[in-house]
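Cross-check.
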Amino acid sequence: MGARVYVVALALVAAGCGQEAASAPPDGPAAATVIVTRDFGAAQLTTARAAPGQSALNALRRTADVGTAYGGRFVTAIDGLEGSKSQQHDWLYYVNGIDPGVGAADMDLHPGDREWWDYRYWRDFMAIPAVIGAWPEPFVHGFEGHSPTVKVEGPDCASRIREALQRQGARIGGDGAYSVSVTTFAQQSAVLADWRGGGLTVRVTDGRVEVYAGTAGWRPAATAAAVIVARSPEGIPGRSFQLVVAGRDQSAACAAANTLATDPAQIEHTYAVALDAGGRVTAAGGQP
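Predicted model, tokenized:
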């Protein structure tokens, strides 16, 4: 099966004959959010509140001008920005940082969900199962309305992340398929090097950080001392989610953990990031 066919299958949206009755988004955190970006989140195009209890496709249609093909089954354009077979760009989406693995018409939104559409280059990464840029999701609202128990592990500085998630309403426990690991490159070397298997746009090979730059391929991140990446260990959408905060040493890992806990705007709408020794994001995977 060719790459284009795979992408089409990934984004299929069975529109159906009717749509759910429109309703106004509720006040407060019960509303869902629809976010539209391009180029691995490099540019935010629109953001809007949406009512839960409708499909991701209908929520998108009520917040943007949507073009479709294949009898309405494939999203080809949002607000006039069209996919391109020749340039290998298309619209792909996430809910709470998770690739749902089903069409947007078959994915229902729940209170607090973050629906994120991104127009991006897909040749090297036709599927990226998990991304970090919906933080603190999916740790608060989970997937398909199921709130997870979250395991946070690592040195003492990991408590900053634990406390930040608790303030957001996450359920912290000693065991769970959803986890945050504060660690070092050496301890997670196999995970951080497996960019194809994990769908990682930031990778660490032999202690060296490299960042995916879209059509330009991979480039070294000379000043990087830490990374934040996400993966789906079980490979089934929503079954598991691991966020890895890793540094060349514990000090760099803790600086990155502090950024995640106290300045999460640095990673908003990113797939994965590289950070310097002080915890400042220096590059984001896929972005120019």
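The longest strand covers residues 43-50. Confidence is low (pLDDT under 50) at residues 1-21. Passed to J.P. for a second look.
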